[in-house]
Design goal:
InterPro entries: Aldose_1/G6P_1-epimerase (IPR008183), G6P_1-epimerase (IPR025532), Gal_mutarotase_sf_dom (IPR011013), GH-type_carb-bd (IPR014718). By secondary structure, the chain is mainly β. The protein is built from 4 helices and 20 strands. It has one domain: Beta-galactosidase, Chain A, domain 5 (Distorted Sandwich). Helices cover 8% and strands 43% of the residues.
């Protein structure tokens, strides 16, 4: 349980609580009763609930794992290998990005965003700067800003900004690792990625072309879809609802589910929990982002939930 003391942050009308380790968490609420929980540990969104109190993000019962976080991944010399969640790299944290294991701070004076990114939203602004220890492994100076916002309609919005305050260019990859809660992975259908080329992490990143009219799941999937559209739909037939993912500045999309065999080898996932989750991540993987000194990159992700019937009639995929 969280610490019982409650204060209110007037800057974003946000309730502040502490977790069991004494680290601040921020509860964003909208007038209809939707809620998002944001932790300073990793700048992670650890909960996103609709107005009925239903959890929309996935967490394993075996461990309080990250469900949604923004993660720049450093590029050192040659391209740093992307391994999604397939544990293909030796360093488990590095493959998810170094930002997820850092303690962020509240950004008291963030540079202005577009007025639409503030109006009618409950939000918190976070900031990450590299420590001296961080710079030993990646000798670049940067400012990584993250705004997490909960809109009046319940949409969850993340806006990430990475600025190069170094004297020379640097490159990085980026991914929002989005663990969505679903009723049954066998009943899930992803639309918007058909006909695209993808890199298959289960086949040494060999390049293939998607042949199906949608992505469905019958076995382990670990793919990076390239040059993907900015709107993707994840249909949950059993719940008759659809997650709509809208992204900007993120050309690629990672799709991952570990399936039965790999789940049994993962310490932070129950043997059968792969059935209740799917990862569909907005990312920049194939072509790392390069920032010149003083320049800034922005990536944006917006998650919505709508009835599946609405999706097929009104979404332009």
């Amino acid at each position: 349980m969280e610490h019982s003391a409650v204060v209110w942050d007037h800057r974003a009308a946000t309730e502040i609580i502490k977790d069991l380790n004494g680290i601040d968490q921020f509860l964003l609420r909208n007038p209809k009763g939707a809620l998002a929980r944001v932790s300073l540990h990793g700048g992670q969104v650890t909960s996103w609930r609709n107005e009925h109190g239903e959890e929309l993000l996935f967490t394993s019962t075996k461990k309080e794992v990250i469900r949604l976080f923004s993660s720049p991944r450093k590029q050192c010399g040659e391209e740093y290998p992307f391994a999604s969640h397939s544990l293909e790299t030796a360093d488990h944290l590095e493959q998810h990005g170094f930002a997820r294991d850092k303690i962020w701070t509240v950004d008291d004076n963030p540079p202005p965003l577009h007025p639409n990114d503030s109006h009618g939203k409950s939000f918190i602004d976070l900031l990450l700067k590299p420590s001296e220890e961080d710079q030993k492994g990646w000798p670049h100076s940067f400012e990584f800003r993250l705004r997490v916002a909960l809109a009046t309609d319940g949409d969850l919005i993340l806006i990430s900004r990475v600025r190069n305050i170094n004297s020379k260019p640097f490159s990085f990859s980026f991914a929002y690792h989005t663990y969505l809660s679903v009723s049954d992975i066998c009943e899930v259908r992803i639309e918007g990625l058909e006909t695209l080329d993808y890199l298959d992490n289960l086949c040494q990143r060999e390049r293939f072309t998607e042949q199906g009219d949608a992505i469905t799941f019958e076995s382990e999937v670990d793919r990076v879809y390239l040059s993907s559209p900015n709107v993707i739909a994840v249909l949950d037939h059993e719940k008759k609802q659809t997650y709509v993912i809208r992204k900007e500045g993120l050309p690629d999309t990672v799709v991952w589910n570990p399936w039965e065999k790999k789940s049994k080898s993962m310490v932070d996932l129950g043997d059968e929990e792969y059935k209740q989750m799917v990862c569909v991540d907005g990312a920049a993987i194939e072509k790392p982002i390069t920032l010149k000194p003083g320049k800034e990159w922005t990536g944006r992700l917006q998650l919505s939930v709508v009835p599946s019937s609405f999706c097929s009639e009104h979404l332009n995929l």
